[in-house]
């Protein structure tokens, strides 16, 4: 390249180095195309915890102005971002399938359609607890967060299952609903509380881990730890209240059905016997 010569109009040859400054740099090894258009891939690794905040900052501070300066260029999420979206879709699908199978198994075991819903009522509170945990630790909500919520749902469903089973046994012994709830909450408070406490304490070392190997697991650990703690409080307070509300609603439905059943029956006319006055008077 340094010995390359340029022919002028006067048919003289001049070395290229006399006309330009030559600088060696890496060039494009190949041009990738998709649907007839040139494609360039941009990859990056992030060592922090809040990936969503970084994406929003890049989109607001850089990509918006860059797109205005280069209107002929289109941007799309491919590679790792698309793989993460596909993974999230699979997680949602299998989580819904797992919850449906759990509902069917509990419905068969309890011979009821409503008590499995009562047992699974703590799952939304586990989700709420995981959101608070992500905000407290400034951790982005991703695919591993959903896996942590699914694990927390399994723990809180077991807690509710133990409580509702104890309530049913006490009701079968002839105790009133309120007395059964008081005794069940008192007898099952220790195992439920200790289960959640030991789970949270066991996850503390991973919550405080700052190594590269542990950072990708932090969202899942946060969801599991805070989801279990938050849902346990609702298990001991919210679930008994729902149980009483369900009993009152069941009684109201039975009374309403009994009322409509008798309302549809025709009213039978009864003959009234009257005494005729005696002719002797």
Q: What can you tell me about this protein's structure?
A:
With 281 residues, this protein is mainly alpha-helical. The protein is built from eight helices and four strands, in the order ββββαααααααα. The strands form two sheets. The chain has a two-stranded antiparallel sheet. Strand 3 (32-34) and strand 4 form a beta hairpin. Helix 2 runs parallel beside helix 5 (143-172), helix 4 packs antiparallel against helix 5 and helix 4 runs antiparallel to helix 8.
What general form does the structure show? Answer: elongated
DSSP helical segment count: 8
CA-based gyration radius = 36 Å
- Taking pLDDT < 50 over at least 5 consecutive residues as the criterion, the unreliable ranges are 269-273
Calculate the mean pLDDT score and round it.
Answer: 77
SS strand fraction: under 5%
Strand tally: 4
Distance from first to last alpha carbon? 151 Å
Order of adjacent strands in the largest pleated sheet: 1-2
Write the element-wise H/E pattern from the N-terminal end onward.
Answer: EEEEHHHHHHHH
Helix content: 55-70%
Question: Largest sheet, described in full?
Answer: 2 strands, antiparallel
Indicate the structural class. mainly alpha
Which terms would index this structure?
281 residues; mainly alpha; 8 helices; 4 strands; 64% helix; elongated
SSE layout and pairing:
Elements: E1 5-7, E2 13-15, E3 32-34, E4 37-39, H1 51-69, H2 80-110, H3 115-119, H4 123-137, H5 143-172, H6 177-207, H7 212-215, H8 218-263
Antiparallel strand pairs: 1-2, 3-4
Helix pairs in contact: 2-5, 4-5, 4-8, 5-6, 5-8, 6-8
